[in-house]
Design goal:
This protein has helices spanning 50-62, 96-103, 105-128, 147-161, 175-181, 201-214, 284-290, 339-352, 354-359, 398-413, 438-459, 467-476; strands at residues 10-16, 39-46, 68-71, 87-89, 140-144, 171-172, 189-193, 196-198, 218-220, 227-229, 237-241, 244-253, 270-279, 297-300, 307-310, 316-320, 362-372, 379-383, 388-392. Helix 1 runs parallel beside helix 10 (398-413) and helix 11 packs antiparallel against helix 12. The protein folds into 2 domains: 10-139 and 194-433, FAD/NAD(P)-binding domain (3-Layer(bba) Sandwich); 435-477. The chain has 478 residues and is an alpha/beta fold. It is globular and about 65 Å long. Helix 1 links the parallel strand 2 and strand 3. The protein has 12 helices and 19 strands. The strands form 3 sheets. It has a 9-stranded mixed β-sheet, sandwiched between helices. The longest helix is centred in the N-terminal third of the chain and has 24 residues, at 105-128. This is FAD dependent oxidoreductase. Residues 42-412 form the FAD dependent oxidoreductase domain. One of its GO terms (cellular component) is cytoplasm.
Length: 478
């Protein structure tokens, strides 16, 4: 059923928020026990999303005798780990040029190859731990739908060769092969990379939480951390909660898009909002028209880009930016999505897949936040003098990146010199975001310009990227 009123057609029982569709069948998890009182540990991890859980997992696997405590404000997987688009994507979270500027091109290439490996590592651990997360390593399709996007796609392929990507890593597709894989209305070009897997993100994070608990890690939910204190003299580092303080040799912050809520970290990373919709299950006739038998992930070359997957139960999960940022770095915990954003995402889906729009409706809409540093590059840091560490700032590439970060934090905490600790995102320090209202004005100006640039590019036959998009990049340093 298509919509002619400018509003998305909603399915009976349509849900908005409630964390995400990924929790829809099993329901929102009931949080486990909260911290029962003061605790002493070797390592305290703040945040039970992918980063925190992977870090605890690898540390406990490496040193079973370590006392590890994980603290979570809601429940494991409440944040972006349980809300994302389900892309285990092997691409650098940030600018390879910025990493290379400080550490040289070979270091940036090494980081890229480590990201390729992270995709397979997620799949390996899921299999080893018996985590059924609908994982399919089918790669990712990047499609262009106007001349400017097509030119950017060609440039992306050409430039990738200078950064260590071969034809086995990224390849343009002839039109016949493109349409055989997935028929996107209006697509004029496409490239495919094998370094991506589809996942049901909530299944992965809940399975990982169970594996971590099974190793003997204490995971305390419903336990907000209000302050993180560094080591002072003989006093160890500490995570302070309303229910007691956890002291530890190392306190590792793994709070990603929720970092701004922590005292002293309000301007470290900007909580950028991203929104998703998912259709009702689509009948076989729709898939006959669309294809998508390989279950590849799908993205485009727009500035205000989209991302999508075909789910295990034959829906289309489709995401984009929506309302990108709330004043003062506020976060809507419930994940509710504005009707205008739902309608806009539906309109984009319908334009790309008319057959799906004819037969499907929107079953669920939700939103979440991702962490964006001022230079748009991810970081992994452990300071042994203060006992503090952190990882994050994944700018939307967190599913695979968090796995690599967890392994890197393990090696840093254990003071082991490895290939991972030599990667250029380790100990990367960047300046903080501007105070309000400059932060709000800058982000909203950036996305207004990107939207206008996309509209201008779609309305012309010019292969040149709109000057409005280049202005937006200049404003924010993206």
């Amino acid at each position: 059923m298509s919509s002619s009123s400018g509003r998305a057609p909603l399915a009976p029982g349509f849900a908005n928020g409630g964390v995400s569709h990924w929790y829809g069948r099993a329901g929102r998890p009931e949080p486990g026990p909260r911290l029962p009182g003061p605790r002493a540990a070797d390592v305290c991890v703040v945040g039970a999303g992918y980063t925190g859980l992977w870090t605890a997992y690898y540390l406990k696997r490496a040193r079973p005798d370590l006392r590890i405590v994980v603290l979570e404000r809601e429940f494991a997987g409440f944040g972006a780990s349980g809300r994302n688009g389900g892309w285990v994507l092997g691409e650098i979270a940030g600018s390879r040029e910025r990493y290379a500027a400080r550490h040289g091109r070979p270091a940036a290439v090494a980081l890229q190859h480590a990201m390729f490996g992270a995709v397979d590592e997620v799949i390996r651990v899921a299999a080893a731990e018996g985590i059924d997360a609908d994982l399919v390593k089918s790669g990712v399709l990047h499609v262009a739908r106007n001349p400017a996007q097509r030119a950017r796609l060609a440039a992306m392929v050409t430039e990738s060769r200078d950064w260590g990507w071969t034809e086995d890593d990224l390849v343009p597709l002839p039109a016949a092969e493109r349409d055989e894989r997935l028929r996107v209305t209006g697509a004029t070009a496409a490239a495919w990379s094998p370094h991506c897997a589809r996942v049901q993100p909530a299944k992965l994070v809940r399975g990982l939480a169970a594996a971590v608990r099974g190793l003997g890690v204490d995971v305390y939910e419903r336990t907000p951390v209000v302050r993180i204190d560094p080591r002072r003299g003989t006093a160890p580092a500490a995570a302070v909660t309303p229910y007691g303080t956890v002291t530890a040799d190392h306190v590792l912050r793994a709070t990603e898009g929720f970092t701004a809520a922590l005292r002293g970290h309000h301007r470290d990373w900007l909580p950028m909002n991203s929104s998703m919709i998912v259709t009702t299950p689509l009948p076989p006739a729709v898939w006959d028209a669309i294809g998508w038998d390989g279950r590849e992930l799908l993205g485009d070359l727009a500035h205000y880009y989209m991302y999508a997957q075909r789910t295990a139960d034959d829906r289309i999960a489709f995401g984009g930016r929506g309302r990108p940022y709330r004043y003062g770095s506020r976060v809507d915990d419930g994940g509710r999505t504005q009707p205008a954003t739902v309608a806009e995402l539906w309109s984009m889906l319908a334009a790309m897949f008319p057959a799906a729009a004819e037969h499907g409706r929107v079953a669920h809409a939700w939103s979440g936040v991702l962490g964006v540093p001022r230079d748009w590059c991810a970081t992994v840091v452990v300071d042994h003098a203060s006992g503090l560490g952190h990882a994050g700032g994944y700018t939307g590439h967190g599913v695979a990146t968090a796995n690599l970060a967890g392994r890197t934090l393990r090696d840093l905490v254990l003071r082991e010199d490895t290939e991972l600790t030599a990667l250029p995102w380790v100990d990367r320090r960047v300046r903080r975001w501007e105070p309000e209202p400059l932060r709000w004005l800058g982000v909203h100006a950036m996305y207004a310009l990107y939207r206008a640039a996309d509209a201008r590019e779609s309305a012309t036959s010019s292969p040149r990227t709109s000057a409005l998009a280049r202005l937006a990049d200049t404003i924010t340093g993206h």
